Amino acid sequence: MLSHAPGDTLGHRLDPRTKLAAQAAIAAVALARSTPAWLLALTLVCLVALRGCGLSVRAVYAEYRGVLPFLLVAPLVGALRFGPPWIEPAGVRDPLLAVYRTVLLLALAAAYVRTTSPRESRAAIARLVPGRAGRFLGLGVALVFRFLPLLRADLRRLREGSWVRLGDERRVDRRVVHLAVGALERAFRRADALALALRARCLSWNPTPPALSFARRDYAVLCLTGALIAAAVAW
């Protein structure tokens, strides 16, 4: 699965605060300007970002292929009508643009996860949000980044074990129940182990953060981000 991987790409060398600011700006532009022309421009921006982070479109698709079918339900539902003509093709446009916008933001999130360690994310959020709230939020983000891959791995092993025992020959509802119950059970076990580990290691609310500093490349990215916002406001 997609997770943080050390590297020397431009995305790895950027300050995490720069990456968070760029993501927030692109998300704001995507929400404010959801026309096909603007989404095409944001697609080019996302492709450049993926390139700078050493990620391919294929890798991002492999990560989110389980989510895409659920996203595509929205345009289909948008075309349905409770009465003649029952299906209105014009109703597909806005939900489809919203789905495409969501896919772009997911691609940016994948680039951020690949190039930013949980420790850096925690430090960046703690600096952006002052006080205890920032430390608490940063801790939560770091725990999610560390905890979610373990849950995904548990679910994958559970599914593979079910296939070995011919679980794919069961009815769909029984397969779903089996995987859901097993996933919840393992999630609770992981949560108990995490709570015990936090108590045993005396969780620190104010750990020594990694050194964060802006470089020329960060200012360049922030300037480009500002130009994108200015263009969205002007046009």
UniProtKB/TrEMBL annotation:
<feature type="transmembrane region" description="Helical">
    <location>
        <begin position="95"/>
        <end position="113"/>
    </location>
</feature>
<protein>
    <submittedName>
        <fullName>Cobalt ABC transporter permease</fullName>
    </submittedName>
</protein>
<dbReference type="InterPro" id="IPR003339">
    <property type="entry name" value="ABC/ECF_trnsptr_transmembrane"/>
</dbReference>
<dbReference type="Pfam" id="PF02361">
    <property type="entry name" value="CbiQ"/>
</dbReference>
<dbReference type="GO" id="GO:0005886">
    <property type="term" value="C:plasma membrane"/>
</dbReference>
<keyword id="KW-0472">Membrane</keyword>
<feature type="transmembrane region" description="Helical">
    <location>
        <begin position="62"/>
        <end position="83"/>
    </location>
</feature>
<feature type="transmembrane region" description="Helical">
    <location>
        <begin position="133"/>
        <end position="151"/>
    </location>
</feature>
<keyword id="KW-1133">Transmembrane helix</keyword>
<keyword id="KW-0812">Transmembrane</keyword>
<feature type="transmembrane region" description="Helical">
    <location>
        <begin position="20"/>
        <end position="50"/>
    </location>
</feature>
